[in-house]
Amino acid sequence: MPERIDFNCDLGEGCGDDAAIVPLVSSASIACGGHAGDEASMRATVALCLRHGVAIGAHPSFVDREHFGRRELDLGAGAIHVLVLAQVRRLATVCEAAGTRLRHVKPHGALYNLAARDADVADAVAAAVQAIDPTLWLYALSGSALAEAGRLAGLPVAEEVFAERRYTVEGRLVPRDEPGAVIDDLDASLAQVRTMLREHAVIALDGSRVPLRADTLCLHGDRPNAARFAASLRAALESEGVRVAHPGAAA
Q1: pLDDT tens digits for range 17-48
Q2: Which CATH architecture fits 4-244?
Q3: CA 169, CA 36: separation in Å to the nearest integer?
Q4: Residues 180-206: tens digit of each pLDDT
Q5: From CA 228, how far away is CA 232, in angstroms rounded?
Q6: Of the candidates 1, 32, 75, 226, which lies 20 to 30 Å from 86 by C-alpha distance?
Q7: pTM confidence score
Q8: What SS3 class is residue 204?
Q9: Measured between alpha carbons, how far is 44 from 47 in angstroms, rounded to an integer?
Q10: Segments making up each domain of the chain, as ranges
């Protein structure tokens, strides 16, 4: 098992129990106006994170509230660069007003998955983050094009794994509209997390073993019973002697 790992959750989306989840995680990726979120929700979520010492990150996405940012839009790399800049800067301004700063950026939904496999999109996202602040951590799917683009841009990169999503043999997330994509059983989720952390691998949906790197562990805050999942995952990590901390925190 690793000595430490970041435990992150997507928040400020208006559909989860953020107040119950925040005390259990080490970092939060906050919706900043694309798939969800507005000035009021960003201010409230930033304040909640500050209250509990949780590192704040931006969660930019395609501007598509109707589909919660989970539909790929036909935008070029230049347009994606612009939308990431705008959304991250919007949250950065909220943070500045609250006397704090952003610590990371993690794309949401369809943008995240597209950047994981498309080098041009990955470069556009990484370049936007680097332009805002080259010390920001970029959260990217383990082994993805986005992780590579972030490193090439000189950004610190946290390779991300998922507690309650199944994987393909290529190491990508199984699309949500396919059977078995989401793990609803807590014990199955815990088993997957232990395999990822102990063995640096995940068992894909077809039964194959896929190597990965786990710097940060994600739980989706919009899932049913997210707070219960978060509490159980945090307890499991601590029972294994794993310290939960943002990747930029002091050792």
Answers
A1: 999 999 999 999 999 999 999 999 999 999 99
A2: Alpha-Beta Barrel (3.20)
A3: 31
A4: 999 999 999 999 999 999 999 999 999
A5: 6
A6: 226
A7: 0.96
A8: coil
A9: 5
A10: 4-244
